[in-house]
Amino acid sequence: MAKKQPLAVLVWKGGQLVPGNGWDRQALAGLQEGQLLEAYAYKPPSNKQERFAHWLFRLAAENAPEGTTWTEGSVKMACKLHCGLVDGMIVRKGRDPEWNFMSLTELDEKQMSDFIDKSLRYIETTIAPGIDIELLKAEAKEKSAKRKW
Predict the structure, then answer these.
(1) Is the same domain home to 73 and 101?
(2) Do 129 and 96 share a structural domain?
(3) Cα dist. 112→18, 72, 76, 126 in Å?
(4) Does the pLDDT of residue 39 top 80, yes or no?
């Protein structure tokens, strides 16, 4: 099942909904009279959460046991799969099926926080067994605070 792509992003400002940027204004200008819109309100994950998660994946790969082939991307995909952040499979003729992973930007702040917590437990038990998880979190927090996203 494919995720529906939004026509535009609206932001609640000053007691009303306004387009998030110029692309959103342009998309809304093309609507026909009487066309129905469906809105979903959510608070997206913060850039801080996303930076932290990506540093977490990178550091987990770097601290994986010798002889394993973990990369930042493979840790991220393994955590998404473990947490059920998949939206089915993609099957192309002549190729192996692939997981269709959900984007972390689809999560709200609470869901992202839950994903990070589950990913930490998965990293600690499966990807880098015996790793000092508190030290890993502290290093990811320090590195993510320095990098401008």
Answers:
(1) yes
(2) yes
(3) 25, 18, 13, 20
(4) no
